[in-house]
Amino acid sequence: xNKLDQLRGMTDVVADTGDIDAIERLKPQDAxxxxxxxxxxxxxxxxxxLVATIKAGKHSExxxxxxxxxxxxxxxxxxxxxxxxxxxxxxxxxxxxxxxxKARELIALYDGQGITSDRILIKIAATWEGIRAAEIxxxxxxxxxxxxxxxxxxxxxxxxxxxFLISPFVGRILDWHLAxxxxxxxxxxxxxxxxxxxxxYEHYKSHGYGTVVMGASFRNTGExxxxxxxxxxxxxxxxxxxxxxxxxxxxxxxxxxxTTLKTPAPLSEANFRWQTNEEAMVTDKLSxxxxxxxxxxxxxxxxxxxxx
Length: 308
Fold this sequence. Notes:
Blueprint (H helix, E strand, L loop, with lengths): L2 H6 L3 E5 L3 H7 L3 E3 L2 H8 L5 H9 L4 H17 L6 E4 L8 H17 L7 E6 L2 H12 L4 E6 L2 H9 L4 E4 L2 H10 L11 H16 L4 E4 L5 H6 L5 E4 L1 H8 L24 H9 L2 H26 L3
Parallel strand pairs: 1-2, 1-8, 2-3, 3-4, 4-5, 5-6, 6-7, 7-8
């Protein structure tokens, strides 16, 4: 049995791509998209007709991107048994009410395609405002995927808010440490991104939180293997292919704990902001991630409105 199949025996494998062909070939449980992946999808021959249709629709810039994201998500849903994660415009990351409104609009668009909300996760950046938006949406039955999680305070606040799922980023944490410190990583357990996910996973399981931990943003298969047993892992097609070609044994590294500790007091806004501010990596990578997604959203808008 190859490592990808072994991983599926202990972890829900999610495809981190908008490439329909790759999803069809690799058969993940769930799939995730973001503005960067949708930008790539918009330039694929497979979606030429969809792009032309959206251009002809004469939508606004934001609406064009929403329609494209939902159309791609609708195609992906046909190929997977689980859920598609669709992201709210990153430019709304610091506006709770606008995020809530946009999430409802995306759910309504999916509903218009006959896809119910239990097949969708709304992706939101894990800012304080984004977490508050997710808290509102979760109470309405709209489940969320809080993305761009780099620090423990973000993970703690998401659990406090009853968020369905978080996406702690592994590779981008490693990127920052390699660029800004003298860190040398000789094995995956020394990887600070891997260590971050392990800490969050152990905290959630030992305190009985129901929030799902989905490691994301991997740079190599070693990071993935070090997190085997995590609730979910969202993996690029290239790394999924690499795992499928490796037939060595894959040991389980993470497993739920038997004991449940007392739930800590919810993190206040002041403490959240202070703890986040105290970690340069978290503030750097969160702001950088939001900027990058926003920039790719703008590029996608230009493609979808080029002939207007």
